Amino acid sequence: MPLPLHAESGAKAWLRYAPVKLAAPLPQRMVVLDKAVTVRSAAFELRRGLLSMTGAAPVSVPVSGYVSGLGLDAQPEFVLGTVTEVRKALPGWHAPVGLKLDGYALETFRNHGQTDLIIAGRTPRGVLYGTFALLETLGEHSELKQLQIASSPSAPIRWADQWDNLNGSIERGYGGRSIFFNDGHVRANLARVGQYARLLASVGLNGVDVNNVNASPQMLSPETIAGLGRIADVMRPWGVRVAISVDFRSPETLGGMKTFNPKDPQVIAWWRQKVNALYQAIPDFAGFTVKADSEGQAGPSQYGLTPAAAANMLAGLLRPHGGVVMYRAFVYNNHLDWNDKKADRARAAYDIFHPLDGKFASNVVVQIKNGPIDFQVREPASPLYAGLRHTNEAMELEVTQEYLGQARQTVYLVPMWKKTLDFNMHAENRDTPVKSIVEGKAFHRPLGGYAAVVNVGLDANWLRNPLSMANLWGYGQLAWNPDQSAEEIASNWARLTFGDDPRIVSAVDSILLPSWHVYEDYTGPLGLETLTDITGAHYGPAPQSAERNGWGMWFRATHTGVGMDRTTATGTGFIGQYPPKVAAMYESLKTCPDDLLLFMHHVPYTHRLHDGKTVIQYIYDSHYAGAIAAQKFVDEWKTLHGLIDTERYEQVLGIQRYQAAYAIVWRDGITRYFYKMSGIADDKGRVGHYAGRVTGAQMQLRGYSPEKVTPWEDASDGKAEVCRDQAQCTASTVLQHPAGVYNIGVQYFDLPQGASTFDLLLNGKALAHWTADRHLPGYKIDGDTSIRYLVRHVSLKPGDKLALVGHPEGGEPAPFDYVVVYPSADQSKLHN
Ligand code: GCU
């Protein structure tokens, strides 16, 4: 019998604890052997989860009445405690060997004729992780028979970073305002912070860096430090430690000193006083993240000193308290000379940090972004992973989808991360997958792990798009165990988040699993990077923005060819930063994988890929294929109608419909751009020909006038129609379609400066009315703000008159690009 579908906001994420049909009874009692706060949370969570899933919560049996080795009256019990405590209580039980810090064991244990369920952690935090794992197992399998699970995290550092500002905004955050800060202060109400910590704990994450890497010096003011203490108090029960990002210039800007030289004794004394104050407020403070000498942030280079000098100074102060320094390798010159064919931003991290290998203190971790540039849709693994043998490393990822659709589009990132984690660096001519290096295994380093920029906000479902939560879940799963597959991570998430009906799991999988590749197809394939506006919102198509400036995200498109030559033979030499086997693979056109071809090589548009297709034709084809695939996500999602709650169903349907239409904006922008650059036509005749479209310029206009769009490729003929200095404007056209049923799309622009309204009329009669009040990224008429309104199933006959009436509002001149008409039955025509 289907379960009733309650409206759900998404706030519970994967911790919904949906009812399960128990295959076998569970213990009705529990014994909690430890008083640590995380174990108390574990007990609380166990009761909460079981009550919700099975309708009954186990009764807590006081430890005082619990006879060692025997349940009170020989009833089955849940037994929660550290390995040492459980061993004492159940002398016949043997803990699994090799449990690492934070690891846990889940075991069914026959004890005097009864079956106990043991949740034992190496540490109290492990008990909490074990409890979440047990509840997950129950949610996925509806039973807890013959449990024999031992699990340990891959690495000690498993952090979520937030780029929150004290004023409550979040840099590159898309799920609303900060849960931590508002108006310059730590929030009074931190309820959401507790819920976040619980979510993170449920996937084994153990630290949060709460503020922007472009840090405010005010993070170290006495008032903020006191507030951070309150944040830590709320997260501690979930085993999550607080860290902060610091501005290296703070001694000057906050301390009023004349210098921030890390060798200056007074500067060191200033930092010592701050570190002490932090540990007073937060005894288990986790440490600092440092972005220095990067994108305008000051750093040790000002004094001719290296990152090691800066990191070690801070590390020395944190070490006695058990804190670490996460020093970011995202250090590069953003004033590169575009004319210098040898200049290459991708080289920077290795060039700067490789010579410092072995010079960092033991509690410094060099935090390296997954790729050498900056969270683009596809990058090779950073060569720096193999470039440091005697230095702790952490991998930095982005859960927040900065260059990957900003949670307005669905992109499941686990397959992308897996690609990097599993990539074999062949360091020292042996198998050294990146994951083995960051975990510390490959080169025997004590510290290491993962930090992902998550940027949840106050929105009910944390990240805006319910499907984006698969990325947070997936990040936690991989940080715990990077050997899991993207498929199993997706399916487990779908089951817990939406329900275990196989139809649900299969539909969600069929959207998530291909979504990265689909996004790559309609944005920047072949290693071109995302091709978005790199000096703007990082959202819509704007390829040229990456070229001819100091930021170094170039792909060097000319009229004859495209791609960055990073070879050692003729290019920037970046490829030479990899160990020899990997370098050889990238250096040769024969062995360089197609998906990174243009990241590594500059080739003519007519260069043939491994399957014989030319580069230019691949660019066209992939964009069309990507747009079609994005449309299929809508159809997949629609199969869930009635199988999940209406609230989340409708929300995701809206997102998938928007994505399907937005993929067309991308497709058109990028294919037009490369058509103009290369002068080579699409051999399928699609680029530049859009059946069913009537552009503004082809309509009869009253009041509307054309305005140039930058970049030109984001609108038909590089122009939009705008209604300026008028109360309303009209654009009309006479349709000559054979009688039939059609969908009508209006491609318009939705700016934040106002909320224009539009009316669509057919032969003078109202067809649709809508308001352009979406909050899209960007602020001007371009690809960021281009959006489609679709009216489905309209009966048309030849000679019908279609009119679009725009009413400007605020600073928004009711701008539009074109209307498109295609038969309702012909889905493929949506792609026009
Ligand atoms: C990206 C991002 C910035 C961020 C930077 C960083 O460039 O756009 O907002 O500050 O990365 O990681 O430091």
Query: What is the CATH domain class of the largest domain?
Result: Alpha Beta
Question: How many E strands?
Answer: 29
- Assembly classification: single chain
Q: Characterize the largest beta sheet: strand count, sense, and whether it forms a barrel.
A: 8 strands, parallel, barrel
How many H/I helical runs? 19
- CATH fold-level topology of the largest domain: TIM Barrel
Question: Mind telling me which CATH architecture of the largest domain this is?
Answer: Alpha-Beta Barrel
Helix content: 25-40%
EC number: 3.2.1.131
InterPro entries: A-glucoronidase_C_sf, GH, Glyco_hydro_67_aGlcAse, Glyco_hydro_67_aGlcAse_N, Glyco_hydro_67_C, Glyco_hydro_67_cat, Hex-like_dom2
Protein name: Xylan alpha-1,2-glucuronidase
Organism: Acidobacterium capsulatum (strain ATCC 51196 / DSM 11244 / BCRC 80197 / JCM 7670 / NBRC 15755 / NCIMB 13165 / 161)
How would you sum up this structure in a few lines?
With 832 residues, the protein is α/β, with parallel strands linked by helices.
Characteristic terms for this protein:
six-stranded mixed beta sheet, Hex-like_dom2, 4 domains, eight-stranded parallel β-barrel, EC 3.2.1.131, Glyco_hydro_67_aGlcAse_N, Alpha-d-glucuronidase, C-terminal Domain, globular, 29% helix, binds alpha-D-glucopyranuronic acid, alpha/beta, single chain, polysaccharide degradation, xylan alpha-1,2-glucuronosidase activity, Chitobiase, domain 2, TIM Barrel
